[in-house]
Automatic annotation (TrEMBL):
SUPFAM superfamilies: Ribonuclease H-like. This is Putative pre-16S rRNA nuclease. HAMAP family: Nuclease_YqgF (MF_00651). CDD domains: YqgF (cd16964). NCBIfam families: RNAse_H_YqgF. One of its GO terms (molecular function) is nuclease activity. Keywords: Cytoplasm, Hydrolase, Nuclease, Ribosome biogenesis. Belongs to the YqgF HJR family. PANTHER family: POLYNUCLEOTIDYL TRANSFERASE, RIBONUCLEASE H-LIKE SUPERFAMILY PROTEIN. It is found in: Cytoplasm.
Amino acid sequence: MRVMGLDVGSKTVGVAISDALGWTAQGIETVQINEEAGDFGIERIKKLVSEYGVTEFVVGYPKNMNNTVGPRGEASENYKKLLEETFHFPVKLWDERLTTMAAERMLIEADVSRKKRKKVIDKMAAVMILQGYLDSKGSV
């Protein structure tokens, strides 16, 4: 019973998975997608769901700082619907404001080169989204 965290962009989806107890998030990979062409990486997500025994999703929800929902937030809402229709288990939207910036800052502080940061930033953002969600569940 694991939770999968997803950071959905227009070209990639960062993927993180919880441990079996639902305490920690680990980055798994970045799935290449093509939003314009309608390729959302669902086949790869299906394989990961099966491999890790996922029973719930958390999708990053990039709201504007004034709490309104823009085009990227709407894209996350649509991805949520696609996951629900495909997998038939819970999909939560999780406010991800500033997670990509925080992930970038962590990687810079760890002295990761710009080229390497670009390859892992979405996966790191997915870890931060999922860890925030897992931490919130533990504090209830």
